[in-house]
């Protein structure tokens, strides 16, 4: 960290910063300039909390050299992490995976029918929400534990590992009994107690980007999970809030190659929540693979017009089949190009 003093800072102000830095266990290296003094902080291992320095008299700015995340960063872990979800390997150098399934588990018939269909079409994992983070309380909130039970039944029938969301730290144990991959939704990306709790279990985690989260905040959220000892984390872009209202969210595809530069964790893309519109899902799923995503997660429903949540963005069965065919062609092209 570099502390930049104000133009009119006094020697007393400078001395106070130097003594505060040394109280923190670091060494302060003043760099006097013709207009102002800067003070380098030496001896830190990674990010320094600047809270006690920022407001000292005469301090103009604290410039961070280290990032607020370390364990997820390539700086400290250059090799790619491969996440193993019940035998399905996800990450760099592996074939991109497809996660398909309804927004929410609605009934035994709905989830079994969808599971069989996505399996036959070549999907790798089945998704379905049992605990749903809905915007308002008067809409379908998910079947809860019954939904988890139905997902387990669908896994038994098809062999597909299951991905489902966990919303509260109290439910991590329960959801982990059923799920192969625990999803943390966009609305909970900064639920730090939840992040720590999934960091303490031995199951992989799919962490979705918050609706208005910067990439730095997203990676700092993942850092909480790794900090508790769980490095089996997949990052998932699902669109962010912008001024644009023609799509549900704005799909930030540039984050895929960028996050691959910054971290060793696998990155997936969810074009369903990113666009909110069925007709845009296949083009954006293809674009995600071109950008280098390690997989896509899409919503599919036997009768989207009757879906209890997210029908307008859910692929129909023929739509899902078309996406799988398109992705296979694209994959063959990318492999040989
Ligand atoms: C979901 O996957 O069903 C979901 C609610 O996604 P997000 O958290 O990205 O909105
Ligand atoms: Mn949904």
Task: Describe the secondary structure blueprint for this structure.
Layout: E1 2-5, H1 11-23, E2 27-32, E3 37-42, H2 51-54, E4 59-63, E5 83-85, E6 88-90, E7 97-101, H3 108-121, E8 125-127, H4 145-158, E9 162-165, H5 172-178, E10 181-184, H6 192-199, E11 205-208, H7 215-227, E12 233-237, H8 255-262, E13 267-269, H9 271-275, H10 278-291, E14 295-299, H11 317-336
Parallel strand pairs: 7-8, 7-14, 8-9, 9-10, 10-11, 11-12, 12-13
Antiparallel strand pairs: 1-3, 1-4, 2-3, 5-6
The structure holds phosphoenolpyruvate and manganese (II) ion (MN).
Manganese (II) ion binds at residues 103, 273, 299, 309-310.
Summarize this structure briefly.
The chain is α/β, with parallel strands linked by helices and 337 residues long. The protein contains eleven helices and 14 strands. α3 packs parallel to α4, α3 packs parallel to α11 and α10 packs parallel to α11.
Description:
The chain is an alpha/beta fold and 337 residues long. It folds into 2 domains: 2-63, Phospho-2-dehydro-3-deoxyheptonate aldolase, domain 1 (Alpha-Beta Plaits), CATH 3.30.70.1140; 83-336, Alpha-Beta Barrel (TIM Barrel). It has 11 helices and 14 strands. It has an 8-stranded parallel β-sheet. Strands 2-3-1-4 form a 4-stranded antiparallel β-sheet, with helices on one face. It is elongated and about 75 Å long. The two termini are 43 Å apart. The mean pLDDT is 97. The protein binds phosphoenolpyruvate and manganese (II) ion. Phosphoenolpyruvate binds at residues 103, 129, 133, 185-187, 208, 238, 270, 273.
